[in-house]
Amino acid sequence: MNTLVSLLCVILIISFLSISLDIKRSDCGCREGFLNPDKYPLSVEKPLLRGFYKEKKNPGITNNEAKDIYQNYPVYPASCPQNNNIRYWKTPNNGQCEPAEFCGGLYETTVHPIPPPPRQPGWDNGIRVNYFESSKYCE
Question: Which terminal Cβ of the chain has fewer Cβ within 10 Å, N or C?
Fold first, then answer.
């Protein structure tokens, strides 16, 4: 009987300490919560992607159905050199909105300027190792 009581006391002490540490951690703001990722009044009144995409003048729910939005989901055949990893979307809609009325309600089609690719390093007659150039001689 003594071992059962002592085990119960240990369990209660551990649970009390874990609860108190959890409360203390949430008071300091260290815990991640479901807060808005932007400043308060602006994040409520304006859409989240407002700097990246043009906003519609009258945002809201559209009359789209699944037959209207499925075309926005990129599917390429296996013989195609492209893949589904699109970097610069014209709209944040990828054709998988649920319900479909939410697709295309906030943003207009936006063409993003695509920066040029980085310049390749100049390979002098050295030994090329993957993308970089190695010394001809080991020192």
Answer: C
Q: Is 75 contained in some domain?
A: yes
Which structural domain range is residue 87 located in? 52-112
Residues of the chain with pLDDT under 50: none
Its pTM stands at 0.53
Q: How many domains does the chain have?
A: 1
Bridge partners, residue 4, by sequence: none
Instruction: Tell me if 16 is assigned to some domain.
Output: no
What pLDDT is stored for residue 135 in this prediction? 63
SS3 of 58-125: CCCCCCCCHHHHHHHCCCCCCCCCCCCCCCCCCCCCCCCCCCHHHCCCCECCCCCCCCCCCCCCCCCC
Maximum CA extent, the chain = 83
